[in-house]
Q: What sequence folds into this?
């Protein structure tokens, strides 16, 4: 089983990176093949709404997103990790999600599977935010669940930690990293 982790924070080694690393360790401990992509190391332009993908099912922008389409195709489990920024996912994660418009076109316009090869895919969402408000994760959850649904990726749940701000603060949480490790194991077993 292949697990693809996509790190959306611009802060390398920050809170969501630490959580994602534990999820991937948990998955690897159950024998999964794991790969993590760090979005802030890549060049991913935003969607320019050229509509070329409506005809081809392919995005014509030749940048690092082309590699991510390939990785999504090959993955059985996808873990999206993004902190909350201005009540949503990061710009890096949003650019990647918007570029999934080419996969939306495949499914809804060209009537072919958005991701090929008939795998049963499942997706997990990881997030943290500084504030402690009731709806902190709601906008991001709607977006992430939407992209998973469009890509035919079954939603497998989330790990959400409010009140986490300083770099590395998640390590002081009583059991967040443990929860992440267990979530990685569960993702492989389910
Ligand atoms: C540009 C920016 C916007 C942010 N907006 C929010 C926000 O709307 N709500 C919130 O609770 N925290 C917000 N934060 C705080 C981050 O979510 C928080 O610091 C988080 O722990 C960062 O996770 P990371 O280390 O994985 O990057 C924001 C941080 C930045 C840099």
A:
């Amino acid at each position: 089983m292949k697990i693809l982790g996509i790190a959306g924070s611009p802060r390398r080694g920050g809170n969501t990176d630490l959580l994602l690393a534990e999820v991937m360790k948990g998955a690897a401990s159950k024998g999964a093949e794991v790969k993590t992509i760090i979005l802030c190391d890549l060049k991913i332009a935003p969607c320019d709404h050229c509509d070329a993908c409506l005809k081809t099912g392919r995005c014509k922008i030749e940048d690092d997103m082309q590699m991510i389409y390939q990785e999504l195709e090959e993955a059985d489990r996808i873990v999206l990790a993004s902190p909350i920024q201005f009540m949503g996912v990061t710009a890096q994660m949003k650019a990647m999600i918007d570029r999934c418009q080419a996969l939306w076109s495949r499914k809804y316009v060209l009537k072919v599977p958005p991701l090929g090869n008939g795998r049963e895919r499942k997706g997990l969402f990881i997030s943290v935010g500084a504030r402690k408000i009731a709806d902190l994760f709601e906008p991001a959850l709607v977006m992430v669940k939407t992209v998973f649904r469009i890509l035919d990726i079954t939603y497998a749940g989330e790990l959400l930690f409010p009140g986490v701000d300083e770099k590395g603060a998640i390590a002081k949480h009583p059991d967040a990293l443990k929860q992440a490790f267990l979530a990685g194991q569960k993702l492989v077993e389910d």
User: Anything to note?
Assistant: Strands lie at 2-7, 33-38, 77-81, 121-128, 153-161.
